[in-house]
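Incident log, structure service

09:12 report received: a user says their structure output differs between two submissions of the same chain.
09:20 pulled the input from the user's history:
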Amino acid sequence: MTRMTTPEPPALRAALANRKPAGAAGGVEIPPVALGCGNFGGVGSSPEFFGGGLTDDQACELMDAAWELGITHFDTADAYGGGRSERAIGQWIASRGVVPQLTTKTFNPMAAGADRGLRPERVARQLQSSIERLGVAQVDLYLAHEFDLDVPLADTLAAFEDARSAGLIRAYGVSNFDSGQLLSALAAGAPAAIQNSFSLLARQDAPDLLDLCQQRHVAYLAFSPLAGGWLTGKYRRGEPYPAGSRMAQRPGPYAGIAGGRTFDLLDRLAVIGHDRGTSTAALALGWLLSDGRVTQIVIGPGSRAQLAPVAEAFEHPLSGDERTAIESALALLDD
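09:34 re-ran on a clean worker, output below:
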């Protein structure tokens, strides 16, 4: 039976505030968990879902709950909800009188048919619009949201360097880059971080990219740590996807894992979690938090209740034997 005990809030806040440096220069330190805000006013950067997702009131309630828990780093992007995510965060900042640490990104279009990419002039324009929507003077971490095949990486990173010199950002990095692209970025500039999808169901960055980040002092930020809800146990073998879930709304990014082997793994993980008294979601987050190469996990809950696995993961850190049991279970995907 799952234990419902919650650690003392001060202890949990202390754990969440245990920051690590991003990048060799050490100009920015980030906590182990960030609140992903991609579902504020949309579902990620997809124009067809702009105006959907969480309403402003729901987003505010979620930010309040995260802040109370001790999550003080918010992650967004200019194109999340076509600007609605950044705007919701800016309204929350103005109304609450506190400023979280902020990551935002650029690459994707702000509307169907709008321009996209990492041209220096576009980077400058988009950063300024992000700052205005957020209502802040500076962004802590600014990321290239995708690799741009049409723009020399050196030109983009030079624009990021200009923004840092101007005090508009504290550090910069990349997102959705592979190891070769990160090496190119390291040759052209000084990215402090990379943010990629990484979870028990998306391990493509292990070990090459994770080891590269450790060797070159690049912070590794894992988004979608619960694989779009798959690692919460909400999707059941032979049953339709729940209404409003990621797989019901936007299945594309996770279609490749919707198979029998995934359900076999989920069954095994549920047993491991049950035996240690935790949810599958907490087990999955704990697996990431126990990997010293992962600097931060970016969670994207849709409600206050969905923050619970974060507290659970910190309350019940994985032992070496439990991590070994999980690694053994992962063989179900590799056979």
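09:41 both user submissions now match this output. Likely a transient worker issue. Closing.
09:42 reviewer note: The chain has one domain: 13-334. The two ends are 31 Å apart (CA to CA).
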